[in-house]
Please model this.
Amino acid sequence: MFKQLSQLSKNLTDELAKGLTDEMNEGQELIDKNSDLPADIQARLRKFDKYEQKYPLLLNAYKLEKSKGEKLGVLLKILSENTPISSLDDFDSLTSFFQNTNLKTDMLNEEIKRLTTLNNEQTLELEKLRCGRKTSNGQEDEIPQAMTRNPEHTDENFDEQNKEMVQVKEQRDGLKKELELKNVEQSTTAATLRALESETRGSADATSKLQQDLSECKNKLENEKEAHQKTLSDLEEFKLQNDKKTSEVQQLISKRDEIHTADVQHTNGSQNAQGLGRDTQNMASKSKKKKRRCKNNTMGNIDGVSSINSDQSSKTTNSLSSEKELKEALENLEVCQKKLKDLQQQYDSIVSEHHDEGQRETVLQDNESEIEALLKEKDESVQKLQECKNLLKEKAEELDSNKDILKSVGNELVTAKDRIKDFESNNKAATDEIKSQLEILRNKNSDSIKNYEITQNELRKKISALEKEKSSIVEEANEVKASLNKRNQEQEILMTNYKRTEEAFTKMKKENSSLSDQLRELATLKRSESTLKMSVTQKEKTIVYLEQQIKEYSVKEDQLSKSVRDMKVENTRLSTKLTQLSKDNEDMKSNVKKSEETMEKFIKENGTLSERLEVLKEKHETLKDVKSVSHEQVGVIRRQCDELNIKLKEANKKIAYLEDELNESALALQERTKEASSMRRIISESQLTEETQIQKLENSLKSVSEEKDRLENELVLQSAVTNRNLQELREANEGLKSQVQELLAKERNFQSEMSRLTALKAEIEKTKSESTKSSHELECAITELRAGLSTSEKKLRGLETANESLKELNNDLTKKLDRISKNYKQVSNQLANVKERNISRRPSRSNSVLSIPDRASVEPLSRHGSHTGELVKDTHSDVNEKIAYIKNVLLGFLEHKDQRDMLLPVMSTLLQLDSNDEKRLMLSIR
Model:
């Protein structure tokens, strides 16, 4: 019996050892690499191997999803800025948006076509207006020609023609203004056309970009949906695996409870050794199967199963001994007693061992709880260490970024200081230059105003002298007319005396002379009538043509006003559309932000779920590994916890040190930012002051330019007045010429009459001898004729002297007219040059500073060019002014080294220098 029991126990122990060796071999195959290390570290290393296998995959997946999310966010921003989409669900509204954009582009193209047609029409109208302007200018040129052709008109006709000329000029000015307005409107329409074309191009580009972004968004959405579905399926698989593992754990727990209950029942109700052996074998096989199913179970469970089997074996031995004692009876009582004693000893030892095993189980449970608590502390410390590492990394990155920011801020401060210095130096130089130029301009303006006043006074003096000359010429003409009337009266008296002698002869000659005079007067009257009729017809034609042009311009103005109204309506419509689009854009942005927030929430929830799953897996694995770990783990874990606590303290110290450094860097950054903000304020203030100074200078320049324009306008008006005076003087000269010609013709008539009278005298002398009665009368007539001849000769001499004086005056006037015309041409050329220079130098502000000496050199020439002819001979003040001007130019040439190249041509023109003289001058100065 005892042999059988011992064999059974040996078999059980062998089987248990085999199962343990199988499990240990399977575990050792995995721990061969780290066999030198303790078991807890090996379990940790297994965990880390699993993490190392899983972590890169999860990290890559997270990076891909993050990059996709960032790209989607950028795409949604682009769509929200350029389209009415506010979230990922509003892709259907893109079709309507693109349809609206296509409609807008079509509308804009139609408007462009319409505006191009209007532009072409306006260009045709402008060409017509220019042709009309040319014709009107031709007609105006013809009118003074007709005036010069007909010098025999009276003063009334001249006044009427002057009035008509003024009206025509006013009409021409009105037409010019209308032309300028039309040109301005055409330029505005062209600008609007260009703006609309650029808008259409921009809208077309935006639509193409939006379509591309849409396609990319759709593809990314599909990819992200697929990735989201994959993550959901992975989550479901993880949940299923977790549920399976929890169910397996519950099954193992229930099986262990069933094994305990079955062992208790077998100890109470088993009487057959074979049944007990079989039960023990079954239990051993079940335990082996269970161990093979769950390879990671603890050593404590195996010890519990062995203790249960030993109890069963002891009880079966007791039952066998009782049966044998009944058969053998008293023969073997002593042996049985001895054996019973041994068995009792063995039983006591087994019971004590069983109690020890219970105590060990309690100790193991306590150790397990301590290990779990230590593991929790270790996990917390590891998490804290990871957080500390992350914080250290973040703070190191922040320190690097702060260093970069500090470097950039320092560089910005250095560059800003350099800029401020350069800016201040440039500002000082520019302000000094501008002030000096303003002073020069003011001086030149004052000089020009003085010169202008002097020229105006001189012109007034000349006009008064010419008026006096005109009045003297008119008085002389009146005197000539009075003398002619007296001569006519004397001639009539002579003719009456002569009628007494030869009435018939004188009557016939008078009739012939009167008829010839009347014929001449008729011819002249017919010519004047024909010229007047021609001028009247021409003026009527011009009036009709101008009325037609006025009507056409009024019609065109109505059309342009209508087009302007249409454009305003379209502008308002487009502005409303723009406001709606901006509102839609804001809605899209808000929706995109909401969708980003929801996506971030989903990603965070996904991360938390994955972390929870990993934590559950880790706990499950730790629970499996903890059951196979003994008391040595506690010491190792405590050591590790101590080391981790030391590392935590060191990390906290480093964190505190880094926080101090961060605070110091933040304070330094704040100081640098304050310095940068102060520098920016200084820069902005300096810019504002400079802008105000520039505005003041620009205003002063504008005022100077306005004064210059005003002076130019006054010069133009004075030139026009001088032209009118010249025309009047020419007309008066022509009238005087006609009067002189008439006087010469009368003189010739008088000479013919004198010859006729001398012939009559000879005949009378011949008839004197024949008629004694009429001798006394003839002598009286002769004496009277002699007296008349003497008076007529005196008057003829006076007329000849007057004619000579008139010729001299005429020559003087022609010379003055030639001089004035030359000066006028010079002034007009200089004005044209000045205007061209102003037009070419207005756009650039930098060139305006350099152009001031040119203007300074041109303006005095233009002022003095009109007075170089006559005033040098007449007035000594003009010479002094020229000397002062040359002195100023020389001083400026010697003082300003920068402006010598600009003033050199002025010097060469004033001093009449050659190229060799200029070279010698420059070499001597250098």
User: Anything to note?
Assistant: Residues 374 and 638 are 8 Å apart (CA to CA).
